[in-house]
Write a structure and sequence with these properties.
Layout: E1 20-23, E2 26-30, H1 33-38, E3 47-48, H2 61-68, E4 76-77, E5 80-81, E6 84-85, E7 89-90, H3 97-114, E8 121-124, H4 131-139, E9 142-147, H5 150-165
Parallel strand pairs: 2-9, 3-8, 8-9
Antiparallel strand pairs: 1-2, 4-7, 5-6
């Protein structure tokens, strides 16, 4: 199982640098992923599966607050990508029930693919609600995630145990 570096003897009584939650072989930390990564020993992560935000502006506290209050907020696929122009699209879309099952299956397959021998640690540096960690837990892999937003971190604490146990069958409701 993955763990943070052990504190030196003179730091034995120091609180952990990042609040954390564990479920099975999954662990999520509340904090900035760049700060968290600086504290990790070399060769402690074997694979990365993540979905970073498209832009810093969209991920700002102000825009997140607007989104949560359903008062706008900017989340979009960039209007220009690979030299092609398109109308800005919302970042979040509504998925039908069957699409949600397909997404869970897909994420579980991605996690399996990045560690084909079944050993190692999967990292999600933008863990959000913990879907990648839940997928790794479901297939029996160790995982660690970092999320800077306390709302998403708390959501992950609730969602990870439920999602990791969910058996995906299209005829079964969520």
């Amino acid at each position: 199982m993955y763990s943070l570096r052990k504190p030196n003897d003179d730091q034995a009584d120091v609180k952990p640098a990042f609040p954390q939650f564990e479920h099975g072989k999954a662990k999520i930390f509340l904090g900035d992923c760049f700060d968290w990564l600086k504290r990790q020993p070399g060769n402690s992560i074997d694979a990365v599966v993540t979905d970073p935000p498209y832009g810093l502006f969209e991920y700002s506290d102000e825009q997140q607050k607007k989104l949560r209050q359903r008062q706008g907020g900017v989340w979009r696929i960039p209007p220009s990508f690979d030299g092609h122009e398109r109308s800005p699209l919302p970042r979040f879309t509504t998925l039908a029930q069957e699409q949600r099952y397909e997404l869970r299956d897909f994420l579980r397959e991605v996690v399996r693919a990045v560690l084909p021998l079944g050993t190692g640690v999967v990292l999600d540096t933008f863990a959000g609600s913990g879907s990648t960690l839940a997928a790794a837990e479901h297939v029996g892999y160790a995982s660690v995630g970092v999320e800077r937003d306390p709302d998403y971190f708390n959501m992950a604490k609730t969602a990870m145990p439920k999602l990791s146990l969910l058996q995906v069958h299209p005829s079964q409701p969520l």
